[in-house]
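During the no-cost extension, the postdoctoral fellow (Dr. R.K.) reprocessed legacy sequence entries with the updated structure-token encoder. One reprocessed record is reproduced below for audit purposes.
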Amino acid sequence: MDYNKLAELLFPHIKGTPEDIEERFPRRTLPEGAKVTRIAPSPTGFMHFGTLFPARIAERLAHQSGGVFYLRIEDTDSKREVKGAEKDIIETLAYYQIHFDEGALADEKEFGIYGPYRQSQRGEIYQTYAKQLVREGKAYPCFTTEEELMALHATDKKAEIKNKDWHNNPDAEKEEIKKLRDITYEQAEEEVAKGNPFVLRILSDGDPEKKTPFVDLIKGKLEVPENDEDFVLLKSDGIPTYHFAHAVDDHLMGTTHVIRGEEWLPSLAKHIMLFRYLGFRLPKYMHIAQLMKMEGNSKKKLSKRDNGAAVSDYRENGYPPVSVNEYVMTLLNSNFEEWRMANADKPYTEFPFSIKKMSTSGALFDFDKLNDVSKNAISRMTADEVYAGVVEWAEEYDAEFADLLKADENYAKAILAIGRGGKKPRKDFAVWKDVKPYMSYFYDGLFSAEDTISDSFDKADVKQILTRFAEVYDENDDNNTWFEKIKTISESLNFASDMKAYKANPENYKGNVSDVSTMLRIAVTGRTNSPDMHEIMRILGKERVIDRLNKAANAL
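Re-encoded structure tokens follow.
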């Protein structure tokens, strides 16, 4: 067989060589130890947590080492492509602060010298390498008529042509496979003349009885059976399969580390063969364990359809990006929380992420844990940061609330500043969606009583407490003076101001100063639980406080 002649027959439009391509993609010059990683999603669906997870790993590995992290869009499957998915991927990465150094941008734009960063625009590159494999006798065409092509789509995709099939089983059926592998130039020329399409298959030399030693950066030492499948490199439309495209692209773009799910382990043998056939250096692989979730008393893999899988849900509910990122870090390295406690004021990007501390069995996704992490993250924010985050979220999901906050920015920030800062900041909410109910009693249009004053107290006493406090309330009082007034009213109505005395002889009193404070709290906020009441009243203003006290008294 004249393989050069066959290559020209199959790819007459390809004039360049792999050497020409290599000149267009110079080797990267980076510091020693610098890693080049990528996220390479397919726009066949919207962003989910299972993509965000490895993206953060790739970003941390690259940027911690002074390397490069890039975005490549693997859009070769046009039939399954979802409209708007690519834009969603790019915007979601930006929203969650997973910043890449080069790659695809929205509106068909990109930046970086290793593009195009969309595989659909790299057809000539793949076909150049495909042509070279044919020249070297490492790949061959399989021609199919339209009818045969339709039948092929209906067959089991796992029923591949295998090297061992015709070596070890020379029966009539296997002879047909041998004919496909041993196609002559004349046969190929005849098929081309008829206009019949072909897929290009690799000519496997593998023996599945033999094992290749391999070191995965997470799984450790493995033994991988050699690939014996003549898997497809180019589909009949000239578009590459994932296997072929990723090998060419990772080589040309200088990828040093590939981070992907463990579901790709069965394909590893194919990729080892491809890199060998192409003469490329194999990148280091990290096959991360799939995320798990509890279902009853057992664990199951987190699927795209599970609650918590869709990244859009986090944004809609109002989880700040930093909260999601910090939660991801807890899943990646178990010592992150210990580090966070010791480094409360540092950004999570300063955490020394380590591959060695990653779980090999699959991290457990836990909403309760996410909420705890988010509360902690928000508690470390300034009032200005919380305000900005809430307004940004509300502008998209609750426009009326956004308008209310923006109508008096200083007032909103004063509310959000309550209990913020110090060694024990308040942790009132985990998501921006919960800020509106948290703040509602500060706005007359949102205010409604959730709790009522206990019927165990005499209504006349309650009314006196409310009206008398309204008479003496002064918004300029400091906290001590403010509380002394409450104690004075309490004592005058036989409510103990000394809690020790009350606990010793509760039967001697109608109640205690804490009961009186709760009555005032419910009258002003409509709740039994709220932040510091002195601060709340100061922010609400004297007029609003007295009005609510009087309304509550009159309602009795």
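Confidence is low (pLDDT under 50) at residues 155-159. The CA atoms of residues 320 and 389 lie 7 Å apart. The remaining legacy entries will be reprocessed before the final report is submitted.
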